[in-house]
# Entry
Amino acid sequence: MDDAARTQGPLDLERGPFRLVRPGAAPTPVICASPHSGRIYPAAMMAASQLDADTIRRSEDAHVDQLIGQAAAFGHTVIAAEFARAFIDVNREPWELDPSMFADELPSFAKGRTARVAAGLGAIARNVCEGQEIYSRKLTFAEAEARVRAVHEPYHRALTALVAEAKARAGIAVLIDWHSMPAAATTRGAEAFDIVLGDRFGSACAPRVTEMVERRLQAMGYRTVRNAPYAGGYTTEHYGRPGRGVHALQIEIGRALYLDEAALTLTAGFERLRENLRQLFAEMAEPSWLAA
# Structure
């Protein structure tokens, strides 16, 4: 494991569960979040894992935090999870847990019968994205609860506060949840695409907001689709209330645009993508961007 994937002690929150970058003067109502780019793998987790450090990293949205970090320079707020999604996925309901992973019985409030749990991708994942099982032993509910309390809950307390602040300040909040997707997920039949915009089929984000982002990305040459294969996860569903002025949009970027997926290293495409996103962030800072 290189410096990009840091191994720390059990629930070592020396750096906190997330990084928060607030803009300076005149903040916009835009919040950019990266829930899956965290690279902290606590030692207790790795001791229970049957996968090596490189394999377990396959579930990361690698370097997405680097792509969106520049948004703060344009007045947008940026929040990025520090702990790996394989440790605790903050884009899931906190108690979305797979009973088969645990040695003891889960409490009644645990939600073990969801499509994401069935796929091995609950709040605590059973698999990395290639379907390889992570753990060599059963976990305990106490371990799961510790992860939720230490990482998931503070992340969402912060996100809830940021959304409320933006809404109180500007009368509107726009939460953009940034992700990346493997090359294998960027085709649908004969159709190939680069970016998926997920707005829960219009229930989490007003069409005009999705359309503005879509038009800009398409003008840059990116092939976009909406809501398939990704319509938006827990964050988009939980926060998106366009009727109340809170818009949540999930953006999935094809990793082939910027990443060598085998080595998890950046390619020459990273700078082009970063520059295009810089232009998008600049446009989002214009007062007319969210005008009705």
The longest helix spans residues 141-170. Residues 1-10 have pLDDT under 50 and may be disordered. The radius of gyration is 18 Å. The first strand starts at residue 6 and ends at 8.
